[in-house]
Write a structure and sequence with these properties.
Shape: globular
Low-confidence stretches: 354-358
Strand content: 15-25%
Strand order of the largest sheet: 12-13-11-10-9-8-7-4-14
Bound molecules: iron/sulfur cluster
Distance between the termini: 48 Å
Radius of gyration: 23 Å
CATH architecture of the largest domain: Alpha-Beta Horseshoe
Mean pLDDT: 90
Largest sheet: 9 strands, mixed
Structural class: alpha/beta
Helix content: 40-55%
Length: 472
Amino acid sequence: MIKVIISKDIYSYDVHSLFKAFFPKEDVKVVFAGDEKASACADSACDKTYHVDTDVTKNELKRNIYKLLFSETGKELPWGNLTGIRPTRIVMNLMEDGYSDDEVRSYMKDTYFVSDEKIELSLRIAHREREVLKDIDCKNGYSLYIGIPFCPTRCLYCSFTAYPIGVYSNIVDDYLTCLEKEIDYVAENFKDKVLDTIYIGGGTPTTLEPHQIERLLSYVYSKLDVSNVKELTVESGRPDSITREKLRAMKKMGVTRISVNPQSMKDETLELIGRRHSVKELVDAFNMAREEGFDNINMDIILGLPGEDDRDVAYTMDEIKKLDPDDLTVHSLAIKRGSKLAEILLERKEKAGKEGNILHGETDEAEVMSKMMKAASDGAAQMGLSPYYLYRQKNISGNYENTGYARKGKAGIYNILINEEVQSIVALGAGTVTKRVYGVGGRIERCDNVKDIKLYMEQIDEMIDRKKKLFS
Ligand code: SF4
């Protein structure tokens, strides 16, 4: 264990993240010097103690820690001392302030020690995001998120709100009635605002029957002004939920973008993570969507799935290339606490009695992830897809990012809006979070809907009241 003693009880999150990035396999404990537990390092599990002077500005503090840990380990981090999850936002803000590309490069290097590769990636993404955002009125517009919290079965790595449709199908219609109440609220309170994008996510929205998809979207159209909507996405993530009738219902209702998500193109991995569908089903669903006229199809893959390395990722990319998607999202698996996969892997680790990371045993997680990311970005480039948004997950210890790639003209607008937090997003349904954005770069306030679907339905009026309060 590594103990870090800070002189002031501030910035502990940043200090912890930075130490964790340098020492991903260690438990890192950050304590305030005033805390009596910190006065002596009597902890026998403690390998090393660092004393950090936090009586400085945040950037200076992080630079000092980075230099200290670099000199001790000789390790350079691709994102330098950046610990936030939206590195491209910094680049966007600098551009808004009139910085040239070269000035951005120097700033990112001198202030945060970001690698040249990541600086170029951020610049590329920021330019592309700005190009998309120039057609969006972030101040007077809003986007709508509708959550459908049902899935065919629960994937082992899932930490989202996802109820097995087989058990919950009898409440879907009542759930839609609750969504309609929330849509009524939006119709009443956002009539002076421009609706830019609609995103129906989950869960798996294509667990809805065709008539339920039509019911939901008909209601949206009857209540809201959709004349300015530039994108209507329906996540159809699980191929085992897709049928031709559902694709036709979505097409008829004006859906412009869907996701058909493999995660991996290896059957044995899909089985291990509980996807309960085969690669063949994925390929069939994708081809069916093309036949039904969908010309913007996203695919999601996950790096770091148990047992996979860069060769498996390269194989997955080769198989995806044959399908030629318009958009590809590459996630790095951050095993979320509480997910079934975390429990299973922890159990295995305990049985094996090993100290190594739970993904790749004794191998270096950062190195493995780095190779997998390279295989994914090479594959995306070969498909003619370029990066257009990026975010980092808090518990990715290897300091890596999740990246969306798309063909020209096919970038997911909603993904950019939510990632850069530049527009208010009104979110309907169980377990969703509404964000009020007070202007680009301004403060952000949130309110959430309860996750439990039964409580959500029982307390629907309160869910609406929370939004009323947020936007009052
Ligand atoms: S499809 Fe997505 S939301 Fe549904 S169980 Fe799997 S990971 Fe969770």
